[in-house]
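sanity check this record:

:::
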Amino acid sequence: MKRSVLSLLLVAAMLSALAACGYFGSPAIGTTTDNTPNAPANTPADTQNNNSSDNSRNTATPRALQTEAYEITYAKATTWVDILGTVWVQGLVEVTNTGTEPLYLNPGAFDLEDSDGRLVKSVSLVSAFPDVIASGEKAYYYEETVLEIDKAIDLVILPRVSVEKAKVDLIRFDITDLELSDGSFGGGLTARGRIENATDEKHDLIYVAVVLFDGSNTPIGLLFTIIMEDLNPGDRIGFEMSEFSMLRDISVNDVHSYIAYGYPLQWQF
C-alpha cells in the first residue's frame, strides 16, 4: 500500500512538472512611410495579387480572460509559388488586447484547410511579435512555411492562440533610422535601422520585428531578427534583416506603413 501511494505521488509530481514546462515563455515605436499614425484595419482587405482566403470564420472573435480580454481582429493565409516552383504559405493572425491588463502571448498554432474543408497543413509553435502587449496594442502571430502541393490555392486559416495575463514586465526599446529597401536579385525586402536601450538594465536576446501594412492598413508581412549580443544601458546599435522567402511581388512600393517593435525575449512560466 505504501508503494502504491508513493507511486501515485511521484506520477502527480511528474505531471505537474510537465505542465509547468509547457509555456515558454517606452510603447512600441510606430513609423509610417507617409508620416501618418499607424492604425491597422480590423477587416481583412486583400489588395495583393496572391491566392488568399477571406472566410467568415476569420472574423474577430472576442475571448474573455477573467479581468483581461483579447480579440482575434485579423486572420489570413496567403499562398504563392517561388522561382523554384515551391509552394509557400504565410499565416498571419492579429491579436488585439481589448482589456485593461498587459497580456503575454505564448507560442500558438493554426490549421490550414482548403475550400472543401480538407486539412492541408497544421503548423505549431508559431511565435507572436511582440510577446507582451499593453491595453489597446496588437500582436501578430506569423509563420511562413512550405506546402506539399503543386500549386497555390485558397486556404482558410484556423488559428489557436495562447494568451494570458502578463507576469513579466512590458519592455520596449526605441527603434530609429528604419529604412526599407527591395532585396537583391528581385526577391524579398530588407530593413535596417538602429535600436537603443534607454533602460537602466542590460538585456540580451533582443527581438526586432517590423510589421508591414498596405494602403488599406491591412498587415501583409513581417520581418524580424534576433540580436544575440548584449544591449547595455545607453547602447545604440544597428541591425539589418531580410525576408528571402517573401517572393510574392511585394516591394517597397506596396508597403504603405509599418510599425517596429524592439524588446527582449522573456520567458513566462
